[in-house]
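pinning this so it doesn't scroll away 📌
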Amino acid sequence: MSVAEVAREAGVNRSFVYDILRGKSRLPNLDKLTRISAVVKVDLEWLLTGKGRLDGDDPITEDYHNDFVAIQYVSARPSMGGGAIVEDEERTGRDFHFRRAWIRDRLKAAPSMLRVMAVQGDSMLPTLNDGDVILIDMNQRNPVPPGVFVLHDGMGLVAKRLEHVPMSDPPRVRIISDNHQYSPYEGTADEINIIGRVRWYGREM
């Protein structure tokens, strides 16, 4: 297929495709890239990282909604209190499996950029409980719109609600606990390291 054909079928500008082919686009729009992967029928994961299968499943298949993808579970445990020290990012136990259709169509995320972690502490009650399992998207590190993120705040790895402080220069981020017993605090974009946005959580009853 020509660039013009790919762009037309995917509903994107030809310049978007040309920039990727010429190496000028380091962070292409994921939604547009998903549409391109469907048009050229290659796996989105391969298109993003070069890993995994080259040949993707046809976008319309009988078993599409029953197909699962493994997401890496890592040993780092974000704290919902004063912060937890990050030891490393090693696999512990089995990976979690999610429906590929949900990852692709609902989250519009790349499986290689997703991680599963367990959280500890009480500062995000009632949103997150101690021991909850969270799914984070490491492609989403911008606190606009506000949401719950995993970040390293200089003391350790924490799960907190983040929002951009309007009109701040340099840009500042407000770090908020849903449990009002914990006071919010702020940091500049350079002072904190946002790991990713929390997209899902699981809880034992």
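📌 and the second one:
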Amino acid sequence: MTTMTVPPGADQLRWVLSDSWTIARRDLLHWVRNPSVIISSVAFPVMFVLLFGYVFGSAIAVPGGGDYREFLMPGMFAQAMVNGAAATVAVVAADRARGVTDRFRSMPVARSAPVIGRSIADMFGSVVDLLVLVGCGLLVGWTTRTGLLPTLAAIGLLLLLRFAMIWVGIFLGLVVSQEAAGLAWAPLFPLTMVANTFVAPSQMPGWLGTIADWNPISATVTATRELFGNPGAGLAATSWPAENAMLLAVLWPVLIVAVFLPLAVRRYRAISR
């Protein structure tokens, strides 16, 4: 294994950032050469938009009134940000299985750079996914009604949720086998369904509605509905999580990052010894 001399202070930070960006570029080039990865990542949420917007949507009423497709789209945006973690798990686990991780650890690069670079590349991919979904939403009748700054704030909250889920995905990708990584979507699916993604928690059985209220995804969905000016922002405001959705939409992702970022970096360094 190559011996690395760690530069001190600010030089070390520049070294980590430079190596991280190099690895991020490598991952982004893979996407450019294989656009099917991006296409497959947005195909599922687009299908759900069409299914719930046009097939089931006519049978679902929004408490308080309003167009269901406008109610739906913030939930779809958040679901796509969370489900993106499955792709992160699969890519990281595949790199381990193919020996890419071993090659990185034998090179004179900062030991945290591969996971940081992965997170940077995934954030670029998430922006593309979100832009495609926004375009799809505009085509089916969704719109934002509050102006530029609230809209940008809503997009920022969605990307913050995605950033948190990236670190969950990186950690799991470093832990599970490549075969198990292919099933990473399985626990994410109920997580995104038992939330206010498609229906209000008040329309669920009491115990399930309580779980949905405290689901981190519900906080982001409620906050973005409010920032976009879409129907349903104030639903079930009798619960503390719903009344403080804007606060929780920031605190939940920050807490997830605070837990899983150090775990991911520590795990990568452990397998690099």
